[in-house]
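dumping the sequnces here before i forget
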Amino acid sequence: MTARIGVVTFPGSLDDRDTQRAIRLAGAEPVALWHKDKDLKQVDAVVLPGGFSYGDYLRAGAISRFSPVMETLIEQAKAGLPVLGICNGFQVLTEAHLLPGAMLGNDHLHFICRDQKLRVENAGTAWTSDYAAGQEIHIPLKNMDGRYVADERTLDELEAEGRVVFRYLDVNPNGSLRDIAGITNAAGNVVGLMPHPEHAVEPLVGSGRTDGLPFFTSILKKLVAAS
Amino acid sequence: MARVVVDVMLKPEILDPQGQAVQRALPRLGFDGISDVRQGKRFELEVDGPVDDAALARIHELAETFLANTVIENFTVKVEELAVGAEK
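..and the predicted 3d for all of it:
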């Protein structure tokens, strides 16, 4: 059985096709999901891709959080469905309260696009098992609203429970508190991060590295092992 | 008909780089003595029918779940009565 991984397209999603391609390269079957449909088509996992869903007109991810597909997704994520939110997808996950904290405009107010160095802090989530804890990777980052914030208590809790999954190294590109680039929920099935692993899956493009591919092979292994 | 105004502001402890950028431009424009600027959002909701307690409670809920993200923002809800024919 081939693992089926859904990719939601919202109005304003930009990286849905790249994400589908990354899933295919990893050996799974990408399934296109539409924001207006409540049905998740019985997929085994879901990726919320990058972009500017609903134009980010109210706050990044705020309007998409109330789309029909999210109603079903929130319910199933709470029941254990693996969900990965990349960039705008991460913003949607915080707005949906599937992940704690919130995303705000970059502290320097500029859109940023760079090859970002990260440290993998947690290789125990559904999406990071093909990395090693402490591993340093480079994947592209491009965002306007990438400043992760949460109150001190939440930050302490995330640190204590090992739920900071990725941290920015060398440069903090957006003013994220404690250099946080990605986090997970308590169960480890929902992960959000600002940088874009789907843009680093083929040696021909981007930085020439494939440091993003393990996201998609991690989830594939987990799903195959579970079936 | 009435207008209900929802004002949304970042919580005081949250860095507001937009407000800071505005503040930094003030001396250049000749406005001295303003030590801090914070930028928020104002929503004006035109409400059909009376703004009774039930309607206000609904708007409060709307503000809390959608217009503001209470993880990072505070909000206030206030009613502005519109006098008929008093438009400027």
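Chain A has five helices and eleven strands.
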